[in-house]
């Protein structure tokens, strides 16, 4: 068994849109991901919905819209199984998604001035840190959780 992702046309489309956004075309990326979301629908494949919503959140113009997409990502993760995730990539574990998803929610709530909700989501992110892999991704999320300032709406570190 290989750790290489299995061909998945939808994940490929998501990845291409993400690259557009990271390459300086966030509006185009947002448009492509929104159209793909409409194709998937609210009951589409949970891996696709979780991944798409997670990335689409970062492309929003308002914190409220970002929060809505982050909530969709977490909801999709709650429907996602390791078996499904591992059909795409054998190393994936759904529980390892949760620290980042909760941290994103904490960040949105902090920026909106919802300190209590920010603390609650930060606590949940901390509770799931043990699920992260010991690799650069895992360390980056651990560092972001460690450095998070929950009651400072100007803090944009992540």
Automatic annotation (TrEMBL):
Source domain of life: Bacteria
This protein's name: Tetratricopeptide repeat protein
SUPFAM superfamilies reported in the protein's UniProt record: TPR-like
InterPro entries: TPR-like_helical_dom_sf
